[in-house]
Glycosyl hydrolase family 20
Amino acid sequence: MIGVPSPTVPLFPVPRSFEVLAAPGPAPGAPVAVRHEPELPEQGYSLVRDAGGTQISYRDDAGLRYAHQTLDQLRADPELSHRAVRVRDWPDFPVRGFMLDVSRDRVPTRRTLRRYVEILAAARMNQLELYTEHTFTYAGHTAVWAAASPLTVDDMRWLDALCAAHGITLVANQNTLGHMERWLAHEPYRDRAEKPEGFTIHGRHRRPSTLQPTPENAEFALGLVRELAATVRARRVNIGADEPWELGKGRSAADAAERGLGQVYLDHLLRVAVPLIEDGYEVMFWADVLADHPEVAGALPTSGLVPVVWQYDGPVHARAALDRATPEQRRQWAADGFDMDALAGGFRERAKALTSAGRPFWVAPGTGAWNSVIGRLDNAVENLLDAAEIGREHGAGGYVVTTWGDHGHHEPPPVTYPGLLFGAAVSWCLDSNREMDLAAALDRIVFDGPGLGSALIAAGSVADVVDAPLLNGSALSAVLFGREDVPAVAPEALAEAERVLSAATDALAHARPAAADGDIAVRETAHAIAIARFALALLAAGGVARLTPAAAGDLLHRLDALLVEQRACWLLSARPGGLDDSIATFAPLRSALVERAAARQ
C-alpha cells in the first residue's frame, strides 16, 4: 500500500508515525485484534486499520491504553473513520507529569480535581503532583491548615484511586526547606525558622520562609512527607527543597561560612531524602540550588534521588526582559545574589551543574499561567519546547509541566489548559507536535466543542502583544499587584491588546463547549479577560497616580464589580479557604483608587 501524505493529523497527540493508506478502511463492526509485542518501546503501540479490521500491537498496559485512545479518535473522525491508516507511536519521556499548586490559596474542589485527571488521561500524561506546603490535614497541626479548606486523607485516597483508574500515578509532594512561611507564621513553629525575624528580598521585607537546617527540622519535615505519602500508593515522592532564600544568612550562617552553603544545603536534603530512599521511595527534589552550587552535584546519591531542573521563562523571552532591566533592578538582583543573566540560557544553563557531573535529571517547565491574569502563552510555548529539547538531548526520564499560584492564584483552571496541553503533546513526541493546532486540540480534547480554545489562545497572546516582557509574570499582573518593575507600554500596543481581548470576549459568546463544565469554563475565562482589560486601562493611564479623580472613581466601581465576580468564579472550582487571602492581594490597588478618587472632593 502507498502512504498518502496528510498535512493535518486530527489526532492528539500527533503520533510520531502516521499514514493514511490508499485503501479502504474497516467496515463498521469489523474485528479488532490485539497482540502483545515486547519489542516495541516502553508505552509504545502500533495500529493498522484496513478492510480486514484493526490490528493493535502493544508493549505494555500503557501502550494498549494509548492505542485504544487513538482508535477512539480515528473512529470519531468523519474523514478518517472509513480510511485505512497505519500508526506507530511511543513517548519521548517515560514520565509526563503535571504539578498543580494547591498551597497558594486555591485548593481545588473534588470536581475540579476530577476534571484535571480526565484531561491528563486524554493528554497521555501519567503523573500528577499536588504541590503542598500546608494544605493537608496533618495530624496535630490543625492551627496551620484550619482556615485553608485543606485536602483530607479521604480526599487523597479518593484522588489516588481515580488516578490509578486512568493510568496516572499520584505523587505526594510536600516542601521540606523553603516556602514554609505558612508554618513559620504560627508560634509553635516560629523557632524552626532560619531567620525568625524574616528577611529582605527584592527590596521588600518578608516573613520567615526557610527552615533552619537542623537534624530536628529534617525529622519534622520527613514526618510530614511520610504522613502525606501514606495516603497514596506511589513509591515516588517530591520533597521540594527549593528557594531557601534565608539559608546561610541566619542561624546557619557560621556553618555555611565554614563548610560552604552548598554543603549545608546538601546535608539537609540528604537528612530528608535518604530515609525515604531507604523506605523504598524514589525521591524528587527541585534542583535550583545545585545550579548555584555545582560543587555538590557530584555528591548526590547515585540512585533513588531525582533532581528536577525547573525554569519558567523561555530563553528569548528572558533575554528580552533582561535587556530592558533598569540599572536599579540589576543592582537589586546583585544585592540579592542572583545571576539573572543565566536565565537567558534556558534549561541548558540551568542543568549545567548536573550535565557537567554526568548526573541524570528531569525537567519542569511551566504553563505560564501564574502572575499573568490570562496567561503568557508565547513564553510558555517557548519554555515548554526548550524543556523538551534539552530534556530529550540529555535523556531526561521525566517532564513535569508545572502551574503555580504565586501571589494569590487568581487565574482559573482554563488559563492553565493551553500550556498543559501543549506540554503534554511535546513531552509525548516533540518532533510531531511542535507545530500543533493548539486551539483545535483544546476544543477537541478539553472542551468537546468549538470556540473556547481559540479565545484562550488569543487572550494568552496578549502578554506578548503588549511588548513589555517581564520575568515570571506579565505587565497585566504587575500593574494590578504593585510590582515596581512595571514597564511602560506603547499606546499602539495597548490598543492592539484591547482589540485582541475584545475579540476574544465576543468569541466566547459563540463558544459551544459540550464538556460537563463547559459553562463554568466560559464564565471563568470571560472573567479573566475582564480583569485583563481592567489591567490594560491601568497601563494606559500610566498607573493610579496619573488618573483623574473621576477616572479613578470609575475604575474603583469597575474593580469592585470584578471582585464580586472573582469570588463567585473562585467558588465554582475551588474551596473557600484561601479566597479571602487571595482577594486581599487587590487591597493595595483598591486603597490607591479610593484615595485618588477622593482627591476631587
